[in-house]
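User: Here's a chain of 104 residues. Predict its fold as tokens.
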Amino acid sequence: MNRSFTLIAGAVFAAGLAACAATTPPQAPVLADASKPAPLNPLPTNLTGYLTVDALDGAALLGPPPTPSSLRGQADRAHYEETRALEGTPRWTQAIADNDLWGG
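Assistant: Prediction complete.
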């Protein structure tokens, strides 16, 4: 019984391995025009989603900003001032580039 199971399992394994080897390898994609590079940030297309323009109200979701005298307001201001210290540095330039989602 054990020997017949081993033979059947070996045959199934060999058939599976042969089936995997018989498939053709994927072809490399053909570039349309290699002389000009693809845009880093493609322009948005005219997609239609399932939400309408007025479906979400950001102000209702986020709520009002914190008052400046509150702890959260003071923390927001401190964080803002920390980030202004980076202005003009390479990290600041990288952050601006990272924020530019649509290339311009």
